[in-house]
Amino acid sequence: MAERKKAANRKAEPQKSEQRQFAEKICALLSAKKAEDILIIDVAEKTTLCDFFVIASGHSSTQVKALCDHVEEKLSAEGVEPRRTEGTREGRWGVIDYGDVIVHIFNDESRLFYHLERLWQDGENATAYKD
What we know:
By secondary structure, the protein is of the alpha+beta class. The protein contains four helices and six strands; from the N terminus they run αββαβββααβ. The chain has helices spanning about 1-30, 60-75, 110-115, 115-120, and strands at about 35-40, 50-60, 85, 95, 100-105, 125-130. A hairpin with a 3-residue loop joins strand 4 and strand 5 (about 100-105). The longest helix has about 30 residues, at about 1-30. It starts with a helix and ends with a strand.
């Protein structure tokens, strides 16, 4: 039984690597539009909801909307559509669900209020994006 579990873990690693690369691609798209404090949090061991959160900030509601639109447009051009979106038009907190990667884009005030990093980060599962 232990051998089967090891084999299953080996199969899952390449997929997780692809998911991580997808999260990093989203970070690059956000960075190109001047998003700040971009963070990737590996939540695979904490929830079945997804494997990664990408969290970023924009300074204004206009920038938050622009960041959400940019990510959706660029990925849509590659044939990748979100499962659903929420709040992307209001400009306070936009959520774009790509299945294994969920993108959270906040204005500064909302990010401080909700502070998702505090809820999901354990010190070893978060990486600040540097372009």
